[in-house]
Amino acid sequence: MSRSNTKLRARAVLTGVMLIAGVATGCAQVKPIDNPENSMSSNATQTASANSTSAAIRSPDADLQAQFDYDTASRILGVSYSVRNPSTSVALVVFDRGNASAVAAGRQKFGAVGAPFEQAQGEDVELTHAVFPLRKPTPTVPPSPIAIRVEPGKGVTGRFEVALKGSVAPKRLRWCVGVAPFDTGYLHEPHDSAQGQLWTASFTVVDHQRMLCTPWYDVATGKFES
Q1: pLDDT band at 40 (very low <50, low <70, confident <90, very high)
Q2: Burial (0-12, 13-18, 19+ Cβ within 10 Å), 119
Q3: DSSP letter, residue 62
Q4: How far apart are CA 201 and CA 143, in angstroms?
Q5: CB atoms within 10 A of CB 145
Q6: Where do the DSSP E strands lie in the chain?
Q7: How far apart are the first and last CA of the chain?
Q8: By the 8 A CB rule, do 140 and 126 touch?
Q9: What is the pTM of this model?
Q10: Which one-letter DSSP state was computed for residue 102?
């Protein structure tokens, strides 16, 4: 067992569960996490281009490229992506690496991309990697988020596959990922890994996080909406 996994196991019980709040639907392409107690507004703008199964998103926070591969028979969606930090001076963290409880319980390998949160509204399905506000009362062992650091001008790649829940055939799919400026005020316990430098985040990062979303992917045409 690696030193990183040992530390994480010491901080979380095996029965730790992920307690997360829902993401509001109908959001803009770049959006903050909705927090009922501390709702934020963002004047961030972005441009998006979509072509077939690939999409490129540019925003002041981060640049996202994503490719979808959806199999209607198995209901498995594969997402390959890269997130680039466009800043010339400020590091970025990307919240796609799951949480300490999942690592401690063996549901996820340390440094690997975590399981996304899935939310369906009718025939639209949104998958999200992000930090969500803790549900109250606060759990005894919070699922501390793990983020990967991206240096200015650099990028990080990832891939995940997920079998969609339910029985309703989706018409549209979308994936969102949370990003935030690197700040040791809400990030601690750095660990080096083969994937990059990983940090554990406190839940105050919700106040600083921004969401970067792909356009909607139309299942029937196999293309992103432009």
Answers
A1: very low
A2: middle
A3: -
A4: 10
A5: 29
A6: 30-31, 47-51, 54-58, 63-71, 76-84, 92-94, 117-121, 124-129, 146-150, 155-163, 172-181, 187-192, 197-201, 210-213, 217-218, 223-224
A7: 46
A8: no
A9: 0.79
A10: H
